[in-house]
Amino acid sequence: MPITSVTKDPETLTLTVVADFAAPLERLWNAYADPRQLERFWGPPTYPAIFTRHDMFAGGRSEYAMTGPEGDVSRGYWEYLSVEPLKSFEVVDGFADPDGSANEQMPSMRMVFTFTATDAGSQVSTTTYFNSVEELEQLLEMGMEEGMRSAMGQMDAVLADLASFAADAATTSQILSDTQVRVSRVIRGSVEQVWRAHHDSDLLQRWLLGPDGWTMPVCEVATDVGDTYRYEWAQVDGEERFGFTGEVLESSPPHRAVTTEQMIGMDGPGTTNEMTLTPVEGGTLLSILITYPSAEVRDMVLGTGMTDGMETSYARLEKDVLSAM
Q1: What range defines the domain where residue 305 resides?
Q2: CA angle 107, 113, 115 (to 5 degrees)
Q3: Rounded CA gap, 325 and 321, in Å?
Q4: pLDDT category, 134, cuts 50, 70, 90?
Q5: What is this structure's pTM?
Q6: Does one domain contain both 181 and 107?
Q7: CATH number at residue 35
Q8: FRET pair for 265, CA 20 to 30 Å: which of 48, 94, 124, 207?
Q9: Could you tell me which residues are beta bridge partners of residue 319?
């Protein structure tokens, strides 16, 4: 068991859990920064977590749901107050309603996660600050301490898994729900470089091409909320052409952008794409949460080889664009 101490202090209204791991500090930090890894240990084994949002920067927000064996769901959120990479992050932690908003009927807490290197590896100290003795007792009765112990007990296996999350791993897609898919890849470049490569038309036309044999003759970029974009691709031989258009819904450079996407010439609802860029060991973790209008549309798009096409583009981004920046 990696937990080395649990301290409850009714006077300061805190619960502090300290856990030590035989893993480098960077590896431990990445386990929290990467939603694919975080959801493998944050929920207890019988209540696995799925993070549908994970914006690890000051002012950002994470949203997750833990589903029990009977199908019951417990939802939560983090609002980031501060983030110091490889050192600490501080959040407001609370319960959430199904739409992701705060459940005002339940208490919220402040949590500080502190990371340090040790002679044997690394350590994370999690201190929860409660608003009152009553709230502290209420949440302990609800199993908060046991949940923390259970979560920490799953981390050794996550930290030992280097291959799944390495910087040289290909683009992956994960089905999160009937309508949501998360696409992830670590890109060798800084957050600022990857953000620029997604918002500079000259750069986009060099790498966002999918398989070989395509060009991007139309690249009208949108950067501010309310702006619209238009991208069109054409085969070199001129036989096929298609494109997408959409609107910027949110923009928090250089970490998060939310856009709509609609295929030109197609009727019906399109998708909503939430892109988050997070600095990790080896580069920048790019996560795109795609929300489809239905499971049928989701499966149809995935069946086109979307993930393979995105991998070809991201590999080109690393080789032809970022290497020269």
Answers
A1: 172-324
A2: 170
A3: 7
A4: confident
A5: 0.91
A6: no
A7: 3.30.530.20
A8: 207
A9: none
**Which of 2-11, 73-82, 138-147, 196-205 has the weakest average pLDDT?**
138-147
Residue with tokens 């499966």: 299
For 42, the token pair is 């944050």
Note the residue count of the chain: 325
Same structural domain, 17 and 155: yes
57 vs 191: CA distance, rounded Å = 12
How far apart, in whole angstroms, are the C-alpha atoms of residue 170 and residue 65? 27
Residue 176 backbone dihedrals phi, psi, to 5 degrees? -100, -30
What span, in angstroms and rounded, lies between the C-alpha atoms of 77 and 183?
21
Label the pairing between strands 3-9 and 14-21.
antiparallel
Return the structure tokens found at 101.
Answer: 């908003």
Judgement on whether residues 149 and 277 belong to the same structural domain of the protein: no
Q: Which helix (H) or strand (E) holds 136?
A: helix 133-141
Burial class (CB in 10 A: 0-12, 13-18, 19+), 111: middle
Q: Is-cis flag, bond preceding 254, omega within 30? A: yes
Distance CA 274, CA 63 (A): 13
Of all residues in the chain, the percent with pLDDT exceeding 70 is 100
Q: Which of 163, 194, 217 delimits the end of a domain?
A: 163
How many structural domains comprise the chain?
Answer: 2
Domain end, chosen from 128, 163, 198, is at 163
Count Cβ neighbours within 10 Å for each residue of 63-94 and write b for 16 or more, e otherwise. bbbbbeeeeeebbbbbbbeebeebebbbbbbb
